[in-house]
Amino acid sequence: MTSPLNFNQYVTTAVDWRAALRSNSRRTYFVISLFFTIYLALGLLVDMFIYSEQYPRATIPQLFHALITFALTPYATIVMVAVAFISVFVTFALSDKLMLLGTEYREISPNSARSEKETQLYNVVDEMKIAAGLQYMPKVFVIEADYMNAFASGYSEKSAMVAITRGLMEKLNRSELQAVMAHELSHIRHMDIKLTLMASVLANLMLMVLDIFFYSAIFSNRDSRSESRNTLVPIIILLRYLLPVINIIILLYLSRRREYMADAGAVELTRDNQALISALLKIQNDHANNQDAYAAAYQQTPHENVRREAYIFDPIQAGFEPVASIADLFSTHPNMVDRLAALGFKINKQS
Prior knowledge:
This protein is α+β, with helices and mostly antiparallel strands. The chain has one domain (about 5-345). It is about 65% helix and about 5% strand. It contains 12 helices and 6 strands. The protein has a 4-stranded mixed beta sheet, sandwiched between helices. It has a two-stranded antiparallel ribbon with strand order 1-6. Strand 4 and strand 5 form a beta hairpin.
C-alpha cells in the first residue's frame, strides 16, 4: 500500500545536478554499450555453433579468432545486426503512435486550447522547448484521465511529443507543471526514448534468437562428433535461463538512471529543484489517496504496459498490476524517497 509523504519528514540539502547529469550519462552509455556487446557476442556464439560441425577439430578459441578476423564469415551475426537495424527503425517510426494506444486523447495547440489550463500547458512546453534548446516544438497531448501522470515519446526532436493526463494538468500549479514538462523535455533532449527503445528491441531480439538457438542445439547435438560443439551446448543451456534475468536487470537499471537524469535535467532547465520536488510529492500523494480508483483506471485502459516505463510516476505504485511479463514484477522507476534525495530533499532523521 502506497503511503502519502509528509513535507515535515524531509529537510533540504545541497545537490550538484551537473555532476548527476554527467554520472547518469556515463552509466547510460555504458549500459547501451553492454547491450550491443552481449548482442554481438550471442551472434558470434551462434556462428561458432554452426561452424563447429563443419570444422569438428577446431577449438572454440580458434573458431572465435577465425570469425572476428573474417577468416570465416559470421553470417549469423551479420543477419542478427540487419534484423536489429530493421526492428529498431520500425519501432522508432511507430513509437509515438504506440504510446497513445488505448487512451482518449486530444492534441493541444494555440488554436485548439479550450481552457486557460490547456493554453498554460502549451505555453509552458514552448518555454521549456526554448530553454532546452530544441529546434522543433513537440506535439502536446492531453489524455482524458483523472490520475496524475505524463510521458514523452518520439525517436527524434522532430517526431517528439509529450502527453499529460488531465488530472495532472488540473492539479499542478504553473511552476510544478513547468517542472514536469522540463522533466519530459529532458527525456527528449537526452535521447532517452531512442536509447531505451533500442535497448528494449535488442533485449527482445536476444531472447528470440536464444530460444531458437536453444532448441536447435538440444535437438541437433545428439550425434555430434565435434568437441567444441559439445562444449558450447552447456553454455547455451546456461544462457537460456540466465540471459533473460540479466536483460531485465540491465533494462530496469537503465530506466531508473534515465529518470534520475531527467529529474536533474528538469532542475537544469528551471534552475529550481523545489518545483519538481513539490510536483513529485503531489503525484505520489494523489496516487496514494486514490489508490483503488486509479488502479482500476489503469487496469481499464488498454496498453498501459507500453507506457509504464515512460511515465513520470510508475503505475505499479498505485496498485496497477499487469500480468504481461516477469519484468512487471520490478520497478522501472527509482524509489520515491531516493528520487527526492537525489534532488536534495532527504528524510530528516532527527524528526
